[in-house]
């Protein structure tokens, strides 16, 4: 069994931290894990892409070939569309519904709001879950739970290779204790929302 998970977003959203949580969670479960990041101009709001592969046997490369990712976790709708070629035909998309306006759109006066990207995903892929990142962050009292909220959505899909309880275990071990309560709240909130939608 090998699970390939691609995470994408922009600098400052917690994409790299999320990829490390997935990898370390897999290792805690006795699996092999490999990761790689393409960060570029992330600190200036540029694109961030993280590859995570988890398997019960050694993994030769951390890089995910196109059209083979089981899960695409997108912190921003436009980034989801930009990286969609990595997803396999029946793969799962977990996407934050809030757009982050790129510098080019701001300079050109574009009214980019991510809605076209979301419509494209929903029209062309059968397993798309929208996560209202702003709402969840508001409910939990911190914008720092966005990455955990998206991971919770992926775990709830059953395609991440990590259970919701496994994710909570990873939070206990990998994040500061003072942040545990708000992150657990984000996990439970997302899990509850997805169960209602099912």
Nutshell version of this structure?
InterPro entries: IorB_Oxidoreductase, Pyrv/ketoisovalerate_OxRed_cat, Pyrv_flavodox_OxRed_cen. The chain is of the alpha/beta class and 198 residues long.
Structure, explained:
With 198 residues, the chain is of the alpha/beta class. 43% of the residues lie in helices and 23% in strands. The protein has helices at residues 15-28, 77-82, 103-108, 115-124, 133-140, 146-157, 164-174, 180-197; strands at residues 2-10, 32-38, 47-55, 69-74, 87-96, 128-131. The chain has a six-stranded mixed β-sheet with strand order 2-3-1-4-5-6, sandwiched between helices. Strand 4 (69-74), helix 2 and strand 5 (87-96) form a beta-alpha-beta unit.
Largest sheet: 6 strands, mixed
Q: What is the assigned CATH homologous superfamily?
A: Pyruvate-ferredoxin oxidoreductase, PFOR, domain III
Beta-strand content estimate: 15-25%
- What separation lies between the terminal Cα atoms? 26 Å
The level of helicity is 40-55%
By DSSP (H or I, 4+ residues per run), the number of helices equals 8
Let me know the average pLDDT: 88
DSSP strand count: 6
> Judging by the overall fold, what is the CATH architecture?
3-Layer(aba) Sandwich
Spans of at least 5 consecutive residues whose pLDDT stays below 50 are none
Decide which structural class fits the backbone: alpha/beta
Highest-level CATH class: Alpha Beta
Domain Pyruvate/ketoisovalerate oxidoreductase catalytic: 11-188
Organism: Candidatus Weimeria bifida
Keywords: Oxidoreductase, Pyruvate
GO molecular function: oxidoreductase activity, acting on the aldehyde or oxo group of donors
């Amino acid at each position: 069994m090998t699970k390939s998970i691609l995470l994408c977003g922009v600098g400052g959203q917690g994409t790299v931290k999320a990829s490390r949580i997935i990898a370390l969670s897999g290792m805690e479960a006795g699996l092999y894990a490999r990761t790689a990041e393409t960060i570029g101009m992330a600190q200036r709001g540029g694109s961030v892409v993280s590859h995570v592969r988890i398997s019960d046997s050694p993994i030769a490369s951390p890089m995910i070939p196109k059209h083979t990712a089981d899960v695409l976790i997108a912190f921003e709708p436009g980034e989801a569309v930009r990286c969609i070629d990595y997803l396999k035909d029946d793969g799962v998309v977990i996407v934050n519904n809030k757009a982050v306006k790129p510098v080019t759109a701001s300079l050109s006066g574009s009214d980019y709001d991510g809605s076209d990207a979301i419509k494209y995903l929903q029209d062309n892929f059968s397993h798309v879950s929208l996560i209202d990142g702003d709402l969840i962050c508001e409910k939990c009292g911190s914008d720092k739970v966005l990455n955990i909220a998206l991971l919770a959505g992926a775990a709830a899909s059953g395609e991440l290779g990590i259970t919701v309880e496994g994710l909570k275990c990873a939070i206990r071990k990998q994040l500061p204790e003072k942040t545990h309560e708000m992150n657990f709240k984000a996990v439970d909130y997302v899990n509850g929302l997805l169960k209602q939608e099912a």
